[in-house]
Amino acid sequence: MSVSKEYNLRRHYQTNHSKHYDQYTEKVREEKLQELKRGLRKYLSGSSETACPEQKQVLANTSPRERAAAVQPVEDVAGNLWEKLREKIKSFVAYSIAIDEITDINNTTQLAIFIRGVDENFDTSEELLDTVPMTGTKSANEIFSRVEKSLKKFNIDWSKLVSVASTGTPAMVDANDGLVTKLKSKVAMVCKGSDLKSVCCIIHPESLCAQKLKMDHVMSVVVNSVNWICSRGLNHSEFTTLLYELDSQYGSLLYYTEIKWLSRGLVLKRFFESLEEIDSFMSSRGKPLPQLSSQDWIKDLAFLVDMTMHLNTLNLSLQGHSQIVTQMYDLIRAFLAKLCLWETHLARNNLAHFPTLKSVSRNESDGLNYIPKIVELKTEFQKRLSDFKLYESDLTLFSSPFSMKIESVKEALQMEVIDLQCNTVLKTKYDKVGIPEFYKYLWSSYPKYKNHCAKILSMFGSTYICEQLFSIMKLSKAEYCSQLKDSQWDSVLHIST
């Protein structure tokens, strides 16, 4: 359910659960509710007892060994997974970590640490390494201490640490006293000559850049209108009825959330396509919006719809598990190239890539008004993604080894790369399977280059995996789950990821 309102809850219950529970009424219904609550408490606390009678019957028909395995506490299950993770980490030839933090429902800051490692067969693994409650100060020293303790718990070799991905907050990336600076010092001390790479989450700069398009004179009208309609039950019901009577393609509006950038594009698109219905409804309720009759305002809205949809497409393509950092960087470079193209097109009033704006444009100079927005967005992207520029030659050597200019390759790798570029058998394999699959077929006669590729393959391009964990945490850490001990909660999270 998008919003926990009575109407949504009732609809969800009637759609999914009424056929099972409508048979219970009055006192019997109350007793059934208490039984379900007791079962939830036992499940969350790892009790071996089972709440459901059906499940008890299933367990009664199993052997003692199967029954013991089926009801083992959550901590035992997680313990087995921790041991497997320790064994897996021992096989890594290179690994990176991603770190992010969030405040849970108990107002405790949780630090999430994920590890991404590559073994000698170029098999990649992404795993939750640790979640640490930050009950004290949240300084770089404290965060470094917690990270160091977590790595020590798994006996991880510091010399194999390649990069750290973070959200780019001062505590993480401050040049003098940030976490990344301390990690670099630690790695340099353990392994002289090693240079720890620092990557600011690609998705965060993308969202921050997108907020440069705020255009408050448009967003304020949209947000206030949507909230006025959707937050009042009667208004929402009557507006939904109006859309139905007018045979609108949508049944309602969507809420806008400042934190969730993706919601902006979806809200704007639906608002634009329901513009006439919204104007009619607001006027009939004595709250007319003169902006909805202004051609200039509508064109600004249309441009914002197109631009946010382009940004949403980029954002979605950057998300997901096991993304390769080079592919994510390629997506950003492609978007920068698109911005350059759009700037040129708008100068000629070519609105081919802005269909919503094109549908309301009446003048040949309409596109010129939005060139400054494109330029500002392009500049912001270039500035915030400077981290990846530092490693661009290393990334290109991984993704396009056969087209890389040898002068751009580090001297320690040049001999092996020349041999590789002249090897027609491997070139054929590269063309056939692509990366990263190609590196599984790389011969042992390229040890330095293989090590370089393992390092790049181990890099996180974003902290998306941490944010996904926080989504699981918010959904799971409810009234009873929030009472679990830290060790139990770690076990639940490790199983769920």
UniProtKB/TrEMBL annotation:
<dbReference type="InterPro" id="IPR042224">
    <property type="entry name" value="GTF2IRD2"/>
</dbReference>
<dbReference type="InterPro" id="IPR012337">
    <property type="entry name" value="RNaseH-like_sf"/>
</dbReference>
<protein>
    <submittedName>
        <fullName>General transcription factor II-I repeat domain-containing protein 2</fullName>
    </submittedName>
</protein>
<dbReference type="GO" id="GO:0005634">
    <property type="term" value="C:nucleus"/>
</dbReference>
